[in-house]
Amino acid sequence: MNKALAALAVLLAGVLALTACSGSSSNDKVLRIWHYEAANSAMGLAWDQAIKDFQAAHPEITVRFESKSFEQVQKTAPMILNSADAPDVMEYNKSNASAGLLAHKGLLTDLTPAVQKYGWDKSLTGPLAVTGRYDTAGVMGSGNWYGISDYGEFAMVYYNKDLFAQNNIPVPTTFDELVRAMDAFVAKGITPFANAGSEYVGHEYLYQLALTKADRAWVDAYQRYTGKVDFHDPIWSYAVNTFTDWVKKGYIAKDSAGLKAEDAGNAFEQKKFPMILSGSWWFGRFQKEITFDWGTFLFPGSKLIPGSGGNLWVVPKKSKHSELATEFIDFTMRKQVQNLLGNNGGVPIAADPAAITDPKSQQLISTFTGLSAADGLAYYPDWPAAGFYDVLSTQVQKLLSGSASADQVQSDLQKAYDSGIPKR
Length: 424
What we know:
By secondary structure, the chain is of the alpha/beta class. The chain has helices at about 1-30, 40-55, 70-80, 95-105, 110-120, 125-130, 160-165, 175-185, 200-210, 215-225, 235-250, 260-270, 285-290, 320-330, 335-340, 360-375, 390-400, 405-420, and strands spanning about 30-35, 60-65, 90, 135, 145, 150-160, 195, 275-280, 295, 305-310, 310-315. Strands 6, 7, 8, 9 and 10 form a five-stranded mixed sheet that branches. Strands 2-1-3-11 form a four-stranded mixed sheet. A two-stranded antiparallel ribbon has the order 4-5. The termini are far apart. Mean pLDDT is about 90; it is low at about 1-25.
């Protein structure tokens, strides 16, 4: 009996050991990647190529890509990253209220050694580096690297060349010319700008107007807490009052308050509006979908433009394969992938300029490079404070509907900003 029990124990121990080894081996061969870019977008196409390249270099590894939505990741990241379900590498939004918050909570891997190993800081310089580095309070711009962006983005005015030509309206190069163009369109019964008050498009109009009067010190105070932020200062007052005036004059439609970004983009594609102010993430899609002659220009009269490095690759602290994860990130920075990104309407940061063949893409990349070199990227208005995105949407909607005065909107923005910024 004792010998039988002993033999059974040995057998069970062997089975358990085999099971454990099998589970460990299986786990060691899987690299889990999450991102939320559309499959046919510039980033989606480029990163799919990076996955294929990585897989070819590591046939012993199974790469398991999982597509997520932006909202899924934003709302569940702190919970998921603090669990055994955390992926090995994932796309995440930059800013103090996003990646900075996760870094502050200890949920992200410090990527500083990988930056030094792969030399990513040679491509990520100036404002591109700001959004990847966070201090112990989770404030961007200094400290260790917790995120890596392999592309850039910025806001611009997309315009319908056909509508401008048909209405004999010159394309503006100064702010005064922009106002005259908008007046000319309104006189013909055409609302000049597509808008989406319930999402980021509305924010960008308000912030861009502020940036026409701002300098880098003002941006740093707002975004990086280097000085006092007063929403009743001349700059914010100008932005709020000018936005209100634009609504009254019909430059932006009052009934756009409830619209989403997708609605605004679709309306521009359908020739309902001659212009839309929005980000370079639309560029590749417009290249594929727009049937009329279109172009872009930077917002006239402003040296500062909403923009930054793109969303970040981050490695969760609970990643089981952090070294493989950082190697995958490096694959997204390689010339073949960067060239693909650039030729599909993205803004690569490490492409071969000679490999970008589309004239519009060449102009897009050149414009971003110039903005970055001139320190003209001013980030985005919702970044500084937790929950500020929703607050901005609500306040922009009030300006569109006229349900609150400019002064009340400014006071509400101040209250939300002060309560949402990190305590240092």
